[in-house]
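YM 10:42: GTP cyclohydrolase 1 type 2 homolog sequence, as discussed on the call
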Amino acid sequence: MSITMQDVIAELRGDVPLIPDTADTLEGAAMETPVKGIAVAFMPSQTVIEQAVALGANLLVVHESPYYSHRPEHASHLADDPVCRVKRDFLRQSGLAVYRHHDYCHRLQPDPIMSGLLQSLAWEAQVEAMLPTAAVVRVPAMRASELAAYAKAKLSLPYVRLTGDPDMRCERVGVLVGYRGGGANAIPLFREHKLDLVLAGEGPEWETPEYVRDAASQGSPKSLLAIGHAESEEPGMRAVAEQLRGRYSELPVHFIPGQPVFRVI
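YM 10:58: structure's back
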């Protein structure tokens, strides 16, 4: 019996209850379409889509939207955009279906995006608290600058960004993936869990980074390590690929790593 798009999506969603109005949709195929090959990536960039087609996949599982907006209804200004049109046309002609694994992914327990990052940082055994949107870990004492260098090396990143006191001693670290590094998440996390440093993907630069800078200026040193949105969530999508590879041994399953979206000049 053929494995269908519906089968793969059900495997990914696990036992998470139905999420009304979810952003997790299948584009480019019917649910009953047989799957011939699966590619998994964080971002469905033009390059990633072309690689998936070259690999012979007809299902691409991604975490973010192909069209530069979290919700389709917020992207009406892109309806006739030439970049979007080229991408839509390429997908239609290639026969590659795209499934966004975002809302259900973050509702799973444990969240594979968080688990993947912690595993890549070798911090799984150091977790003291796993919260709905964050993890609290205790690491061997080191300076904030040393912790930044450690994360950069473990994740093979070309750069990271550190604000606060680079020489402060850090042991208690909060981990926030993706866009969860904003003040509403990170600032209470610092206070409630007595953190030395927060490692986050990204967030508004006028919120947590400025809070951390002021705290350091007031003699209450804290640090924030921003590693990038994709850089914080791609390890989790690699774990999703491993999950599918283990579940569907009869199908080719490929993980396609992305390239950094920014260059430091």
